[in-house]
Amino acid sequence: MDAMVTITDKAKGRIEQIMREENYDSSYFVRVAVESGGCSGLSYKLDFDNEEKKGDQFCEDKGIRICLDIKSYLYLAGTELDYSDGLNGKGFEFHNPNASRTCACGESFSV
């Protein structure tokens, strides 16, 4: 399946590092989701999981399996996941073409 969410090389490296540190085997994937909340109305959630849920949509980019529930897919299709370790903050960043407004911290958005 084509990648619904793509990842940068930096995000791939950080994901692989976390998976090694946490001893996650190849059954684990990255679960990306959208939840209500945050200063702009919707917030991003990223987690590791190895249990599929009804309605999950899977894609793969750069060898990393990515999972979205059907609701999140509607908000995140075409999003790029990046990782920043610079002075302005450390963590995963979402570059979402569907977001019409993003809060200053980049952790929430609205459409």
From TrEMBL:
InterPro entries: ATAP, ATAP_core_dom, FeS_cluster_insertion_CS, HesB-like_dom_sf, IscA_plant_cyanobact
Domain of life, per lineage: Bacteria
Gene Ontology terms, MF aspect: 2 iron, 2 sulfur cluster binding
Gene3D superfamilies xref list: HesB-like domain
A family per Pfam: Fe-S_biosyn
GO aspect biological process, one term: iron-sulfur cluster assembly
Signal sequence annotation: none
Core domain location: 5-106
Protein name: Iron-sulfur cluster assembly protein
